[in-house]
Protein: Pyridoxal phosphate homeostasis protein
Organism: Pseudoduganella dura
Amino acid sequence: MSGIPDRLQAVENAIVAACREAGRAPGSVQLLAVSKTFGPDAVLAAVEAGQHAFGENYVQEGVDKIAALAGRGLAWHFIGPIQSNKTRPIAGHFDWVHTVEREKIAVRLSEQRPEALGPLNVCVQVNISGEASKSGAAPGEVAALAEAVTRLPNLRLRGLMAIPEPVEDFAAQRAAFAAVREIFETLRGRFGPDFDTLSMGMSADLRAAILEGATIVRVGSAIFGSRTYDK
């Protein structure tokens, strides 16, 4: 755990540098620390270094960590694929969901969200690269799905999320993120001031994502180190 503060600082420095390059305020980009497969102790080390927003891909693992770290004022984001039989614990424990790709899932999240928690913040996931192996709505389906989310009483539509196909070419990285941003900007006036979030960019393409307007970047191993296992 001793390396987490230094790695977290390095990622924050990279975000600041990319924001300056883009002519943006550093505070316009939120770092989401992806803590999947790392235990509460690792999360706590990041918390003590100043990090308060965490992303989880696996439902039960995330729920267990949320319980273990309750009362610390943390924000928990679900960023993994959503199975229909997992919507209830997601709706009951998380503050954000980035991966809504079907109206059926959105309806279940709304129906199962405890009213005492307030609306669940939701991003529609866009399959911008058209990969068969990737989750997300096709670009042409995003507007209708986003509209459906706005009609659900216990959800708050916040924006779009995307995981483009990994490429090393920087121009190609920017092009994929620019395509997501164009969809976002097309919809922004339609959905009002709450529609303010572009969740895109990870360790390998963080700079390109910020240059193209990301407001949340999702970074895991660059903060917590190499994962010893995956599910």
About this structure: Strands lie at 30-34, 53-56, 75-78, 96-100, 120-126, 155-162, 197-199, 216-219. The chain has a mean pLDDT of 95.
